[in-house]
Amino acid sequence: MKNFARVLLCFALWTVSQGNAQETFAPLITDNCVAFVHVDFSKVEIDKVKANLQKLGDNLLRELGFDEQSHKATARELAVELEKLDLLVRPQFDTLTKELGIRELAVIVDMELITQGIPTVTVIPWKNKTDKQFETFCTLLHLEHAAGSIVNTGDFLLFPDNAWSADEVADWAKRMTPSAKAPIFEALKSVAGAEIKAAAVLPEQVRMIARSVGIMAPDIPSELKGILLFAINKIQWASAAVSLSEITGSEPLSNADVLLTVKLPNQADAEMLREMLEQLIDFGVNTFRAQMEQPQIPPLVFQFTRGMLRTLLPDVEDDTLVFRDIDGSQFAVPVVGMGVAFLLPAVQAARQAARRMQCTNNIKQILLAIHNHHDAQRGLPPLYTVDENDKPLHSWRVLILPYIEQQALYQQIRLDEPWDSEYNKRFHNVIIPIYACPSNSITDTGKNCVYSVIGHHSVLAGEAIRPGLPGQGGRPRDTFARIADGTSNTIAIVEVKEPFCWMDPTADITLDELVKGINTREGRVGSNHTGGINVGMFDGSVHFISNTIDLGVLRALGTCAGGENVATPR
User: How far apart are CA 305 and CA 282, in angstroms?
Assistant: First the structure.
């Protein structure tokens, strides 16, 4: 029920009135800002929203042809459900707006943060608020356990979408330079009076990432790829506006007639993109028709679908494409959806590229730690340490903690006790950023690591040591000298699909599991990156290996002294 209440509260926050994001959030908008969503709910009228939803339901029932009795009965049930929602949402909404005085929020996408693996930051003005108000705010939105991931600058609360990125966001907020001439402001001008507004720009670095992803994506049809590449090369900015409080289902929106505006270099490019959208509609309908399992469906159905979609095409006004509301609420959602489709390719491409880049950096840091361990301990860490009965105690990931700036954590762990002892269990929920790939959603903080060695075929699988303290009671026997195949041709680190606890000494994959393939149904090796995984080699380099790699080559790369003459796929 708590989660349901939060969803309803969020819905209420999005049914809002006019705002001026340029003034409130200007201190956080830089030249690197590529997307901005603003919501102002200072004048929201819940009673009006209820009345509009009731009227929208009545109109829908009438259009569906309900008889009078069924119409009245259904409308009565709708009124009851809306009243329940009111009782659930209004107290929390009043607390947020009246007691806490929170009037608006924004979501910012900044290229500098993206390169650090932080796709978005949600911002709430917080000037002159007290600690008591912060406590109330966290309790209201059930953020008590996430308070440590919220950055309070004094003027704003910043919520990064990665819980472990608070330090990076705080540092960004301290050193960032606001810009009154940021390109995002030009896009925001076209929706200055909207209740909900979103804007995105396409700087050259985003275009480069989007082009490379678009060209390499094998699953995108050539017809769609051509449109995406044209849009990526030509669109300068796009802005969208929504006014949910005006939707009644019976007449066009009065204050948000323009739902989406797309700016191109000139009118010729705008006309070309509109023509390409027409062709895309034809391609989509024809593809749908060809794939239908019931070819006896009358052609009229497909022609009707084509005609409906064409009503959503934009108008060309000089160098812009303007998408307008057609006839009330039944077209609002599809048009806004097309707007999002314009904004998403570049942003999604940038997000995926940033996450893959951060994953690459994680693996490089792990490899560097392994090398530093080798230098300091005159040997590589073992796969795991053992007790006097040869029972595994701690993973190699624990042993390299001092070399990844986690010395304090390392000193707290009892290395002579098992990793899952009552004392050591307290560390299972600790999130170590370089052990967690940003492309993975963490649903269980006790299982957040995705980086594995190839147990029992890796040089890290040398003689286990006792009592779990490197350099005491014996040394790891293996060194880089054992890698007869060459450090640049031998895999040290691979990604696995299912996260596990970073302390688990038995979680690493075997060679047999590696050769089941990458991102296969039966194998453990895989990632959420498109098309393959990142792997780290013992020479410290990181490469992206495709899902389609030859399994014989993969096996050869997974052994350190097999004598195979192979090179890492580039």
Answer: 10
Q: How far apart are CA 339 and CA 233, in angstroms?
A: 17
Q: pLDDT tens for residues 355-384?
A: 888 899 899 999 999 999 988 888 888 888
Return the SS3 of 232. Answer: helix
Is the Cβ–Cβ distance between 336 and 259 less than 8 Å?
Answer: yes
- The answer to whether 412 and 427 have CB atoms below 8 angstroms apart is yes
Query: Which residue's entry shows tokens 């505006």?
Result: 261
Tell me, yes or no, whether 364 lies in a domain: no
494-540 residue pLDDT tens: 999 989 999 999 889 888 899 999 999 888 999 988 888 999 998 88
Q: Which residues contact 78 (CB under 8 A, 6 or more apart)?
A: 53, 54, 57
Residue 109 Cα distances to 116, 158, 367, 432, angstroms: 12, 12, 30, 24
**Does the pLDDT value for residue 394 go beyond 80?**
yes
Alpha-carbon distances of 113 from 166, 179, 217, 378, 485, rounded to whole Å: 11, 16, 25, 38, 39
Roughly how many angstroms between the first and final C-alpha of the chain, as a whole number? 50
Of residues 164 and 453, which shows the higher confidence score? 453
3-state SS class at 389: coil
Picking from 466, 473, 485, 488, the residue whose alpha carbon sits closest to that of residue 539 is 488
pTM of the shown model: 0.51
Mean pLDDT score, 556-563:
79
Asked if residue 567 is part of any domain, the answer here is no
Strands 509-510 and 491-500, by their bridges, are: unpaired
Is 255 in the same domain as 300? yes
Residues 330 and 390 in one domain: no
Spatial distance between the Cα atoms of 508 and 491, rounded to a whole number of angstroms: 13
pLDDT at 141: 76
Task: Write the single-letter amino acid at 17.
Answer: S
Q: Answer yes or no: do 13 and 143 share one domain.
A: yes
296 and 440 belong to one structural domain: no
CA distance 260 to 190: 9
Cα–Cα dist 397/383, whole Å: 9
Which tokens go with 179?
């810009």
Sign of CA dihedral 519, 521, 525, 527: positive
Q: How far apart are CA 75 and CA 87, in angstroms?
A: 19
Q: Is residue 366 part of a domain?
A: no
Tally of domains within the chain: 2
**181's tokens:** 């001439």
Q: Which residues pair with 109 in a beta bridge?
A: 35
Other beta carbons less than 10 A from residue 229's beta carbon: 17
In contact, 325 and 335? CB cutoff 8 Å: yes
Query: What domain range includes position 52?
Result: 2-349
Neighbours of 471 (CB within 10 A): 12
Q: What stretches of 419-538 show up as alpha helix (H) in DSSP?
A: 511-514
Give phi and psi for 299, each to the nearest 5: -55, -25
- Per the structure block, which two tokens stand in for 409? 């954590």
The b-or-e profile of 39-49 (16+ CB within 10 A means b, else e) is bbbeebebeeb
Provide the 10 A C-beta neighbour count for residue 244: 18
